[in-house]
Every structure is written in C-alpha cells, then in structure tokens.
Amino acid sequence: MDKAALEERLAELPLYSYGFFDPRELEFTDRVRWVCEHECPMYGTTWACPPAVGAVAECKKKCLSYPECLMIASVTEVSDISNIDETLATRPAHEKLTNRVRDEMRQLGVKPFILSTEACTICSRCAYLDGLPCRMPGAMHPCVESQGINVIPLLEKFGLEFQYGENVVTWVSLLFFA
Ligand code: SF4
User: Fold this and answer.
1) Range of weakest confidence among 46-60, 109-123, 139-153, 163-177
2) How many domains in the chain?
3) 162: confidence class by pLDDT, cuts 50, 70, 90
4) Burial zone of 101 (CB within 10 Å; 0-12 exposed, 13-18 middle, 19+ buried)
C-alpha cells in the first residue's frame, strides 16, 4: 500500500493521532480476557466480543498474520466522563472515522482486518444471542480488547494517554493490513 498516499488522506480527517507499527509489538494477555469476562457487561452478548471471537491465542495468531498495522485515535471532550450514556454517545463518530479510514485503505488496494471499540451495535439485537451467524461479518469490527490486547503499552508507544483529563474520552482502532 502507498502509505504516503494514505497519510495525505488521513491528514484530512479529524484524527487525534495515528501511527504504523509491527503487530508483533502488541502485548496479548489472558489478563485482558479475564477483565472482559469478569468486568464487562457485554461479555458473551455479541459476535464482536469474547468468547465468540475465539481464544486469545487464536486472536493473536490472526493479528500476527498481518505484517503491518495502523493505529488511529480520536479524542472527545464530554461534560462528565462518569456519565456512561454521554461517553458512549461519542463512540459512533469514532466508528464512522474508522470506516472512513477503512474505505481509504480499500481505495488504495488493501482490505484491512479491523479492531475497534466496545461491542458491536450495528443490529438492535445481536444474532449471537439467538445462536445465529453474524448478519454483517464484513461490517462488524471486534473490540481491540476482545483479542486480549493490552492497549496501554500501545498508547504509550505513540505518546498517548488513556485519559487526557477528567472528561476526555480516547477511542482507538487498529487496522491490520498486508
Ligand atoms: S453485525 Fe449484528 S449480528 Fe453481527 S456482531 Fe454486529 S450486532 Fe451482532
């Protein structure tokens, strides 16, 4: 892929930060999976979350099958970050941005494997709950953490903070490509 051409296009988007890196730098750990299982209410509710995404070892294998990855981050200020509804309301804009970057990459001839934020909300009720296959496997993006990825070292690598201030939401997506 012509990275310079992609960077020209990325410069036109409201991204806070982006960067290319080798997926082998990612830290995969069952500790993150444990947090999904014990602390996230979305666990076991969508095809974008564990356990539907497979074991951490399988997720790692898939991510590492790509030689390169693009990290994109956006930040949004909210009036009260402890207000979950207000915080989650900032997510669709980041998902839209992720899909815009996906489209730009596709135009440049690559089809990225995408990890994004939280659980999939494309359908009002995920088919997973009814034991049915995902209705839009080409459109849904598993959550970054669902793969067992520890996002903190990644943010540090790019000089990003998990939280910039009391009321700043940081969203991150990863686009793996060959
Ligand atoms: S596209 Fe629909 S069926 Fe597939 S993961 Fe998302 S919500 Fe579930």
Assistant:
1) 163-177
2) 1
3) low
4) buried
pLDDT, tens digit, for every residue of 136-148? Answer: 999 999 999 999 9
- Residue with CA closest to ligand 1 atom 2: 123
Domain range for 172 is 3-177
The DSSP letter of residue 75 is E
Distance 123 CA to ligand 1 centre (A): 6
C-alpha distances out from residue 118 to 24, 83, 91, 123, 145, Å: 23, 16, 9, 14, 8
> What is the distance in A from the centroid of ligand 1 to the CA of 143?
12
What pLDDT, on a 0 to 100 scale, did the predictor assign at position 169? 84
Task: Using a cut of 0.90, tell me whether the model's pTM lies above it.
Answer: yes
Ligand 1 pocket, residue 42 CB under 6 Å: no
156's tokens: 């540090």
Helices 30-39 and 56-64: crossing angle, nearest 10°?
130
Nearest residue (by CA) to ligand 1, atom 5, is 47
119 touches ligand 1 (CB under 6 Å): no
